[in-house]
Backbone:
């Protein structure tokens, strides 16, 4: 039996969602509304609410980075998502890293980082979608990645590390 509603409550978001730390300028915030939109050229979209400091910074700098930190850093995700602006590197004990193609500060502890330059901004409601060219990818060779999955309401999870493969003719 379904219950019906016109807007999502805490039980009706499509979750869990992979979460990353979006940095722009010297600020960063956790972000779960993000997706690739083109493989070649590699382009990525992020969705950021207008009340966040990062929203204004994205319009100003027209660039950002996505810093994927593993499950051992969920406290840093939660802390940086509970404050607006300020010195978040100090707050979370994360280490700033210089980027190659943008002026935005990267996060050293990430296992993977995308440097991105914005090519389009569209607003549909209280969030804007920022579509960007991925201009550099940094990838650390780690044995097992424990990605961070956000469930809402301060709950985080990671994968079981027990992938089930379905036989198929072609692989991506
Ligand atoms: C796990 C998690 C995921 C989040 N995902 C998003 C998101 O996709 N888009 C967004 O605008 N805010 C998202 N937020 C909220 C912002 O991260 C939060 O408002 C943050 O404090 C904004 O920081 P800023 O004002 O310094 O930019 C998320 C928060 C958490 C904890």
Residues:
């Amino acid at each position: 039996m379904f219950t019906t509603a016109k807007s999502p409550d805490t039980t009706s978001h499509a979750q869990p969602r992979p979460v990353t730390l979006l940095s722009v300028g010297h600020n960063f915030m956790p972000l779960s509304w993000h997706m690739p939109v083109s493989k070649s050229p590699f382009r990525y979209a992020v969705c950021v609410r207008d009340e966040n400091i990062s929203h204004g910074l994205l319009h100003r700098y027209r660039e950002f980075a996505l810093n994927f930190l593993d499950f051992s850093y969920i406290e840093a995700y939660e802390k940086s998502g509970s404050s607006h602006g300020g010195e978040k590197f100090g707050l979370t004990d994360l280490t700033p890293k210089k980027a190659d193609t943008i002026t935005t500060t990267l996060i050293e502890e990430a296992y993977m980082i995308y440097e991105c330059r914005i090519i389009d901004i569209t607003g549909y409601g209280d969030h804007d979608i920022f579509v960007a060219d991925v201009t550099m990818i940094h990838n650390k060779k780690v044995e097992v990645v424990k990605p961070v999955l956000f469930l809402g309401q301060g709950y985080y999870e990671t994968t079981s590390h027990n992938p089930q493969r379905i036989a198929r003719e072609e692989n991506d």
Summary: The chain has a mean pLDDT of 95. The chain has one domain: 23-157.
